[in-house]
Amino acid sequence: MLVLAIESSCDETAAAIVRDGREVLSSVVASQADTHAIYGGVVPEIASRMHIESIFSVVDSCVKQASLHTSDIDAVAVTAAPGLIGALLTGLSFAKAAALALDKPVVPVHHIKGHVAANYIAFPELEPPFFALVISGGHTLFADVRDYDEMEILGSSRDDAAGEAFDKVARVLGLPYPGGKAMDELRALADPKAESYRLPRPEFPDAPLDCSFSGLKTAVINLYHNALQKGVELDRALLSRSFHEAVADVLVPRAINGARACGRNILAVAGGVAANSYIRQRLTQAAEKEGIKLYIPPLSLCGDNAAMIGSAGYYAYLAHGGAEFDLNAYATMSPSETF
Question: pTM for the complete prediction?
Answer without folding.
Answer: 0.94
